[in-house]
């Protein structure tokens, strides 16, 4: 497909052009950089790694602490396992500005749910086509971000090659540091005395180390679903413990001989045994926590204005702006259970437009009031604090609202329908959803749309 036309930044007349620091060059940081520059801002992206891509930069090495508890451990950003294929169809996963389509190139993965390398290649194409890489300072780790006189932001960064610390001042900072690196763990009574190996899925790469072992996985996420099948090919037994099934649950996974589904683990014991809520007891070698991640901003100093409380980053107006520091501090990419690329794109357009003064935010009091109402609603619906950024039920309405603010087209109907069809298939047919589908009509519409936009 032909490359999309790149609008000339000089044809856009922003009210204010800000000097903006972006932390991270993953999917969120890349789209933030593109959108902010399009709006006329001056952008610097700080990236700790030597390449763009963030999570999609597969790293065979893992953290030095497999559970991710030791604060001084060597940390690896990526949580990808070798066999990982996307859990969304490429058409609905990609950015609106740059369709994620088959390239037809020989060395590329043409599958609709491609392997992780294809996503990295796509992000590299995006960065090249929109000349985003030139904005990135690689091998620079942001070690402190804090507000200084005049409402400006001081960014202290460390050059990882020359080991130098440098301080620079910016008008605004956009935080895009990702949130799939700091493991969240399940609490298991007795696990401190349990003699087996415990780890988090963040540190899972390949099945081989689990050959002939008895492995317990905790969780019911996409990772647990993939990894239990990956490991079952070599392991003796795989037991999946889930909080979201009935207490008595105990059954073999259809189509498998050595994967059992249980209710949650009740206790772990010194003799190596593990008891489940369903009364079953298993002697296991490994417990793997596939239990998600914590938001973590070790570099951010806001005097307590922005906090992370039980995985709620707050207070944030619509998951982006802390009212007391808006618009000069913003977060792109926090929402969970979404198609992150198009969502980050919409959030980035919003941040860009608000920073230039083209789009207005409500007063600080009104934003705080709206956050209060939101938190009250979550509480009244029994939704735990740590689900604050879960947007499973309203991501597209949210994107459309942002698009409306920015004066750009909302989420395409085909994208929405494809996303829901895929999520449904993933639940009903976890073995085959990546290779068999029935949403041909939406695929045709997507490609028609891409063709029209490229013309
Ligand atoms: P990241 O990709 O994590 O990027 C953050 C960047 O910030 C990194 O490059 C990091 O090095 C940098 N950084 C962090 N701290 C600093 C610092 N202090 N200084 C400088 N740089 C820093 N999404 C999909 O759409 N489809 C999928 O199929 C899919 N599968 C997934 C599978 C797994 C196992 C996981 C964990 C997530 C998956 N996701 C998927 C979600 C995925 O997280 C998003 O697609 C997206 O990659 C997130 O981008 P990000 O930019 O927010 O974060």
TrEMBL record:
Keyword Protein biosynthesis appears in the UniProt entry: no
- EC number(s): the record gives 1.-.-.-
Q: Name one GO molecular function term.
A: flavin adenine dinucleotide binding
Sorted keywords for this record are: FAD, Flavoprotein, Monooxygenase, NADP, Oxidoreductase
From which domain of life does this come? Eukaryota
Q: What class of enzyme is it?
A: oxidoreductase
Which cofactors does the annotated protein need, by name? FAD
Pfam families according to UniProt: FMO-like
Keyword hit for Repeat: no
State the family named in the UniProt similarity comment for this chain: Belongs to the FMO family.
Name of the protein this chain belongs to: Flavin-containing monooxygenase
Organism expressing this protein natively: Dillenia turbinata
């Amino acid at each position: 497909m032909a490359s999309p036309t790149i609008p000339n930044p000089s044809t856009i007349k922003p009210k204010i052009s800000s000097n903006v620091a972006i932390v991270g060059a993953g999917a969120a940081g890349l789209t933030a950089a593109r959108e902010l520059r399009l709006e006329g801002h001056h952008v610097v992206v700080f990236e700790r790694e030597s390449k763009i891509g963030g999570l999609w930069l597969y790293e065979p090495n893992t953290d030095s602490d497999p559970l991710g508890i030791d604060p001084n451990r060597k940390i690896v950003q990526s949580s990808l396992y070798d066999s990982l294929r996307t859990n969304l169809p490429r058409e609905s996963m990609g950015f609106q500005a740059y369709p994620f389509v088959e390239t037809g190139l020989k060395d590329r993965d043409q599958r609709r749910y491609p392997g992780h390398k294809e996503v990295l290649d796509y992000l590299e194409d995006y960065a090249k086509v929109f000349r985003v890489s030139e904005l990135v300072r690689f091998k620079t780790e942001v070690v402190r971000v804090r507000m200084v006189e005049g409402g400006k932001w001081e960014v202290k960064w460390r050059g990882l090659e020359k080991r130098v610390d440098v301080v620079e001042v910016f008008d605004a900072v956009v935080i895009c540091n990702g949130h799939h690196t700091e493991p969240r763990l399940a609490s298991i009574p007795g696990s401190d005395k349990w003699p087996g190996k415990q780890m988090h899925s963040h540190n899972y790469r390949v099945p081989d180390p689990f050959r002939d072992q008895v492995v317990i996985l905790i969780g019911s996420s996409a990772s647990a679903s993939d990894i239990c099948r990956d490991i079952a090919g070599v392991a003796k037994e795989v037991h999946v413990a889930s909080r979201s099934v009935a207490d008595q649950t105990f059954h073999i996974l259809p189509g498998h001989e050595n994967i059992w589904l249980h209710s949650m683990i009740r206790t772990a014991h010194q003799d190596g045994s593990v008891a489940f809520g369903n009364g079953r007891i298993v002697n296991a070698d490994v417990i793997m926590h596939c239990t998600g991640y914590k938001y973590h901003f070790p570099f951010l100093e806001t005097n307590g204005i922005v906090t992370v409380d039980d995985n709620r980053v707050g207070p944030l107006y619509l998951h982006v702006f802390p009212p007391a520091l808006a618009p000069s501090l913003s977060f792109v990419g926090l929402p969970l259970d979404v198609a992150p690329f198009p969502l980050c794109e919409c959030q980035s357009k919003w941040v860009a437009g608000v920073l230039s003064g083209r789009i207005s935010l409500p007063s600080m009091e009104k934003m705080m009031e709206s956050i209060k109402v939101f938190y009250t609603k979550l509480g009244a619906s029994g939704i735990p604090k740590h689900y604050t950024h879960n947007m499973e039920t309203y991501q597209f309405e949210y994107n459309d609202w942002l698009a409306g603010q920015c004066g750009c087209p909302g989420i395409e109907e085909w994208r929405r329908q494809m996303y829901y069809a895929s999520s449904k298939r993933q639940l009903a047919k976890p073995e085959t959803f990546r290779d068999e589908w029935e949403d041909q009509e939406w695929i045709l519409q997507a490609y028609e749309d891409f063709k029209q936009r490229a013309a």
